[in-house]
């Protein structure tokens, strides 16, 4: 029998039920070993230790972009799992084709190919603590994404103000585009690649330039890049005077030359 204290184990009082819910972890429980024919007994303490289930990573959807327009993408699950647990030597993620395979710890999936005919698939995974052996169940949605179909930005010609500056109205350039898209404008292709030094909304330009645009979508992993040229024209110079004096003729008509 099992008891909560050594005194109860010696006396045989208050034995624990077969299905005992532990009160803490760790918790010391005492075993009472009785040799019935002779009446001799011994007690032995042991520790109940409940290992916590690992907390699932923030993992629900994995999209890959069909950048080369081949109509298919290979999802490397083993490499993806290693990236997710790169900072934890005691964690592992195993992917399965079905909940049954996952429950039975069946065959692991290392790769999955998605095509235009089958562009989505649900996988089932175990998130394992490799030290304690405990695990949690999760699901991952694989998705084949496509580059969004957007109208390319046209080249622009802007007139400068007397100081030689011109305002690039980027806000009006993206009006009417669905809210799922996010636009970032850059002055160089390198800045676009590194996602740094954005031009911001309605930047002021002082020279002819090429503007580079990075477009992302909340519903796709694809990144769309575009660029357009901006040519600045100097402000027009006029010879108009600030005021004119007109003489009215007898017929009340005056001519301006």
In short:
The protein has five helices and 15 strands. It is mainly beta.
Overview of this structure, please?
- By secondary structure, the chain is mainly beta.
- It contains five helices and 15 strands.
- It has helices spanning 6-11, 77-84, 99-103, 170-173, 189-194, and strands spanning 2-3, 27-35, 40-48, 61-65, 72-76, 91-96, 111-115, 120-129, 135-145, 156-159, 166-167, 181-186, 204-205, 209-217, 220-233.
- It is elongated and about 145 Å long.
- The mean pLDDT is 88.
Q: Mean pLDDT, rounded to whole units?
A: 88
Strand order of the largest sheet: 4-9-8-6
Overall form: elongated
Proportion of helical residues: 10-25%
Q: Give start-end ranges of low-pLDDT stretches.
A: none
**Total number of helical segments?**
5
Number of DSSP E strands: 15
Order of helices and strands: EHEEEEHEHEEEEEHEHEEE
Overall structural class, as computed from helix and strand content, comes to mainly beta
Cα distance, first to last residue? 119 Å
Radius of gyration: 37 Å
Largest sheet: 4 strands, mixed
Strand content: 35-45%
Features:
four-stranded mixed beta sheet; 257 residues; mainly beta; elongated; 15 strands
SSE diagram, text form:
Layout: E1 2-3, H1 6-11, E2 27-35, E3 40-48, E4 61-65, E5 72-76, H2 77-84, E6 91-96, H3 99-103, E7 111-115, E8 120-129, E9 135-145, E10 156-159, E11 166-167, H4 170-173, E12 181-186, H5 189-194, E13 204-205, E14 209-217, E15 220-233
Parallel strand pairs: 4-9, 10-15
Antiparallel strand pairs: 1-2, 2-3, 5-7, 6-8, 8-9, 11-13, 12-14, 14-15
